[in-house]
Amino acid sequence: MGLFRKLVLIFTLIPLVEFFIFYSLASVISLPYTIAIIIGTGFLGAWLTKAQGFKTLTSYQKAVSEGRIPHREAIDGLLILLAGAVLLTPGFLTDAVGFALLVPQIREKVRKYLADRLKDKVQVVGQDLRDPISRKSTQAGPDDVFTVESEVIDQKPGE
User: How many CB atoms within 10 Å of residue 92?
Assistant: First the structure.
């Protein structure tokens, strides 16, 4: 199935399911309570997203300061951003997905699933920037000196 067809299904099926859930719940507990729940989950989702985002940002900064590539933290940040987006979208199905993505253990499973799916499609290329003497250590220390050879190319627009 092509990407366009999947997107059409997602953008038509999800709103229909959300509407059905909304209508069913409103008929059981009343429309004002249903709307209150949607607004409440929006505020709760925004607060939880902010808290998880700051925690992930702190982990990201720690990884960078330790000289590690913050790949887990970057993916967590993207998943938290996605969680925030779907939590701000009115609906119960989207709220369930958003709250699930804010649970670290679920986010870890999603991250591993994405890594398994993308491992053959993404290639990380780089070189060890430390000198041969310091290569025996696995982490860069605060006194390590790195030299990066580079070239500046000045390109004017339209050239």
Answer: 18
Q: What is the CA radius of gyration of the chain?
A: 23
- Angle formed at CA 19 by CA 82 and CA 50, multiple of 5 degrees: 25
Structure tokens at 41: 């989950």
pTM (2 d.p.): 0.69
What would the DSSP string read from start to end of 10-29?
Answer: HHHHHHHHHHHHHHHHHHHH
Q: Which helix (H) or strand (E) holds 106?
A: helix 104-118
pLDDT digits (tens, 9 = 90+) for 118-140: 887 776 665 554 444 444 445 55
Closest CA to 83 of 45, 123, 120: 45
